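Example (one chain per record):
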Amino acid sequence: MLKKHLALAILVTLVWGLNFPITKLGLRGIDPFVLTGIRFALAALPLVFFIRRPAVHFGYVAAYGVIFGLGMWGVINYGIQIGVSPGIASLIIQLSVFFTLGWGVVLFNETLRDAQLVGAGLTLLGLAGIVVTQEGSHAVLGVMLIVLSALAWSVGNVIIKRSGVKEIFAFMVWASLFPPIPLFLMAWWMHGNAAFESLPAHLDATAISSILFQVYLATHFAYWGWNSLLKAYPVSTVAPLSLLIPVFGLASSMLIIGERVSWLELVSMAVILVGLGVGLYRWPVKRKPGTGPGSLQ
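Predicted structure:
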């Protein structure tokens, strides 16, 4: 991976890591499905009137929008609201890496290198280390919801790869048209009119800042960057980069909303970074004398 693309990936994962505690701030008074619906409504409007529809089958756009908006972020936000901490949510969502690697092998005939397998094992060990250090028990439903959102993210990655879309930003804007109505209907189905009637009273500066961050950085910028990487590289190369998200997510949750991180958690984060480095590094191939590019053989 080129250095500029690696830098983009690190910046994207930083934004996504920050997004978890910042979203938690918005969820303090707003229904999770309403908050997510507002996010995607603003991500689509008014840009959809000025940006040409991407030149791919519109079914890909609609499918990605629903899976990404409702299946991933709506579910994540609901899981956070019912008790899963933002830092832990940023951790569990990384199961998408393993789902995505599996899709790459099954659907795209990609072959995993030994280094990727070793790196995946190290990162799994690091993730397990963080999980076992958490104090208190989270609702089983909340944890399962985050796992479901991880699966949804991996399916979204496959849709991007299958579609062959080149207009990444336009794809994201048009896909954002599809989640708001299902999200608002979900909020109404679960909480009735109360989910909407309480909204004006809770739209303070903190909530508005949270929404703007989610729309313009976590959605427009970050998914443009991520999907651009998916377009340029195999999914098995891009997917492990998302393992940086829980590192940034836990660190920013500690700083922004006061989550406590133990020394064992810090060690586990270091293990994740080592695993990521092992998985991404391509070991140089040793050539036999006389078999280089300039040889006569």
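Caption: Residues 284-297 have pLDDT under 50 and may be disordered.
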